[in-house]
Design goal:
The structure is a homodimer. Chain A has about 140 residues and is mainly α. Chain A has one domain: Arc Repressor Mutant, subunit A. Helices cover about 65% and strands about 5% of the residues of chain A. Chain A has six helices and two strands. A two-stranded antiparallel sheet of chain A has the order 1-2. In chain A, a hairpin with a 7-residue loop joins β1 and β2. In chain A, α2 packs across α3, α2 packs across α5 and α3 crosses α4. Chain A is globular. The two termini of chain A are about 25 Å apart. Chains A and B meet through α1, α5 and α6 of A and α1, α5 and α6 of B. Chain A binds a DNA duplex (30 and 30 nucleotides) through α1 and α4. Chains A, B: This is Transcriptional regulator. Chains A, B: One of its GO terms (biological process) is response to stress. Chains A, B: Keywords: DNA-binding, Transcription, Transcription regulation. Chains A, B: One of its GO terms (molecular function) is DNA binding.
DNA sequence: AGTATATAGTTAGTATAGAAACTATTTTAA
DNA sequence: TTAAAATAGTTTCTATACTAACTATATACT
């Protein structure tokens, strides 16, 4: 079908994702948050009080990234860090009331953005195949 | 089907692409080139002598990015810039013999990486739907 | 117990994207 | 034809990912 996979799958996927992230960045600008900061806030909201390391795993970030993003979330008073009670190397991370408020706004907002705009005219069947392809690619390169 | 699109489509796509780029970065390390540098080299090979601006459009890069990536490709002696003959603001960009050699190695190498590894066990039908979903998403957010 | 190893987090360096300001030119238009 | 606007490219700043080196603390081993 698509003989040039680098071109028709690799580069085209990369192009599309960049476009989606640009789009989401623009949409989220009114909330003064980036898509990457959103992932961290979302994971934190669902797992309040976990350590920075656990948050990094859940948000799919490496340690330097989670350090930087948490610095930003702290500046914006969306999250705060406390010294861990028993392990003095660690921090426990908490979401603030402002963070909860923003999360409650963004959850439905983003669902609407996906439903009404990004995924418009795409059927559930197509999305199911799309997701299955992603899962297979993940499995294929897993542990590398 | 997938009710939480942000989660099951947005964040999961983002996770997968990051994994693929990490995988490709590792695979390309032996050739001392990154995936982003590769896109530029590939477009340059197919359009030798075009301006930096045209190259930026073809490689899907903004102008600061193309400046930086070309600097790196010049350092590696894979590309070179010449002052444009008629427009003194512009540069014409050329691929070097070393660049051509690397491109001739990488084109088949990457096809094998996709065919045998990244896209293993994914059918042509699934890939067709996958590509169609990407196209629809692109159209949906186009011009934003 | 004391040393070696592992772990949590930070910092620094490279590569990338994107916005904004800047320089040098070219084009447009008054 | 000269002033204004547009364009090509660079530089700077912020945000991100990733690697490696670093600090502080905890765990394991002898």
């Amino acid at each position: 079908m698509y003989k040039e996979k680098d071109e028709h799958i690799g580069i085209y996927t990369s192009h599309t994702i960049k476009a989606i992230i640009r789009f989401l960045t623009t949409e989220l600008k009114q909330f003064d948050i980036t898509p990457e900061q959103w992932i961290v806030l979302k994971r934190l909201a669902a797992n309040d009080g976990i350590t920075q390391k656990e948050l990094a795993v859940l948000a799919d970030k490496d340690r330097p990234s989670i350090t930087r993003i948490l610095d930003i979330l702290e500046q914006k008073e969306l999250a705060r860090k406390e010294k861990h009670h028993t392990d003095r190397r660690s921090f426990s991370v908490f979401i603030t009331p402002r963070g909860i408020e923003l999360k409650n706004q963004l959850l439905p907002f983003l669902e609407d953005v996906y439903e009404d705009r990004i995924l418009k005219a795409i059927t559930d069947e197509e999305l199911e195949v799309y997701r299955r392809v992603l899962e297979k690619m993940n499995r294929n390169i897993e542990g590398v």
